[in-house]
């Protein structure tokens, strides 16, 4: 008997340690699946915890007609579908309305909106999750892809992820979702059309491979330095002509060099105060942890995660996720000198 089969037999008999060993190799990718389904790291935490509890309780009924991996994904997907049904879709500011031509000072956070959140991608593989998957694991947590998923109903979202990201067959997905193969194929067709309209042809993984790690680190360092020095000219030199900048939970966002320059000059470079920034990665993309000086504390405190979307070696999008809570999972300190 293999170690896997031995642990499975023990887990069916109520051995919690054996169940933990069985789940451990899949835990990271299951969490990423929940994030793709729900668009929120916090929701993914809750969904995975609930799914693993359901799996633990249901393990004695697992008959082994499918792989344990397939069964765990079935439980996780159904858990997420239950949550999707009762919650608003996750959004970014670009989903809410047109861009602003000039900086909006005193912008108020919209707390009634369910916002997309950044994802700490450490531990995710660069390879596909299955031999028949179309996307690499990091491709499938990129901001554009996850944001596009939020425009799909739950069944289409699940079908697309299970087929194109995880490599399950239409027949396996039909079993997971308790539906017909024809329904799965129909859901896939509709989901692919919507996603293809919203996701750029070139993924960030392709872009990062093309420019190389050294150039990517230079862009991130130059972006951080320009903002810390208050150097608008150096910042603008890094941006594409059609650059966008958004800052959830603030509703206003900016498109094009003129609007972005006006915003950057009047807000982060002028009215916010002194910054420090540390490089990181989020959603398979280069990112920066931004720290704002708290004069009373005498230190810079965690403020936002800036996720950078590159086109060639220029920044095409800045998505600034405001909130110290976003730092959880990134391995970044809460304060810097």
From TrEMBL:
<comment type="subunit">
    <text>Interacts transiently with the RNA polymerase catalytic core formed by RpoA, RpoB, RpoC and RpoZ (2 alpha, 1 beta, 1 beta' and 1 omega subunit) to form the RNA polymerase holoenzyme that can initiate transcription.</text>
</comment>
<dbReference type="InterPro" id="IPR039425">
    <property type="entry name" value="RNA_pol_sigma-70-like"/>
</dbReference>
<keyword id="KW-0731">Sigma factor</keyword>
<keyword id="KW-0238">DNA-binding</keyword>
<comment type="similarity">
    <text>Belongs to the sigma-70 factor family. ECF subfamily.</text>
</comment>
<dbReference type="InterPro" id="IPR036388">
    <property type="entry name" value="WH-like_DNA-bd_sf"/>
</dbReference>
<dbReference type="InterPro" id="IPR037401">
    <property type="entry name" value="SnoaL-like"/>
</dbReference>
<feature type="domain" description="RNA polymerase sigma factor 70 region 4 type 2">
    <location>
        <begin position="144"/>
        <end position="193"/>
    </location>
</feature>
<feature type="domain" description="SnoaL-like">
    <location>
        <begin position="220"/>
        <end position="318"/>
    </location>
</feature>
<keyword id="KW-0805">Transcription regulation</keyword>
<dbReference type="Pfam" id="PF04542">
    <property type="entry name" value="Sigma70_r2"/>
</dbReference>
<dbReference type="InterPro" id="IPR013324">
    <property type="entry name" value="RNA_pol_sigma_r3/r4-like"/>
</dbReference>
<dbReference type="InterPro" id="IPR032710">
    <property type="entry name" value="NTF2-like_dom_sf"/>
</dbReference>
<dbReference type="Pfam" id="PF08281">
    <property type="entry name" value="Sigma70_r4_2"/>
</dbReference>
<dbReference type="InterPro" id="IPR007627">
    <property type="entry name" value="RNA_pol_sigma70_r2"/>
</dbReference>
<dbReference type="InterPro" id="IPR013249">
    <property type="entry name" value="RNA_pol_sigma70_r4_t2"/>
</dbReference>
<feature type="domain" description="RNA polymerase sigma-70 region 2">
    <location>
        <begin position="23"/>
        <end position="89"/>
    </location>
</feature>
<dbReference type="Pfam" id="PF12680">
    <property type="entry name" value="SnoaL_2"/>
</dbReference>
<dbReference type="InterPro" id="IPR014284">
    <property type="entry name" value="RNA_pol_sigma-70_dom"/>
</dbReference>
<keyword id="KW-0804">Transcription</keyword>
<dbReference type="InterPro" id="IPR013325">
    <property type="entry name" value="RNA_pol_sigma_r2"/>
</dbReference>
<dbReference type="InterPro" id="IPR014305">
    <property type="entry name" value="RNA_pol_sigma-G_actinobac"/>
</dbReference>
<protein>
    <submittedName>
        <fullName>Sigma-70 family RNA polymerase sigma factor</fullName>
    </submittedName>
</protein>
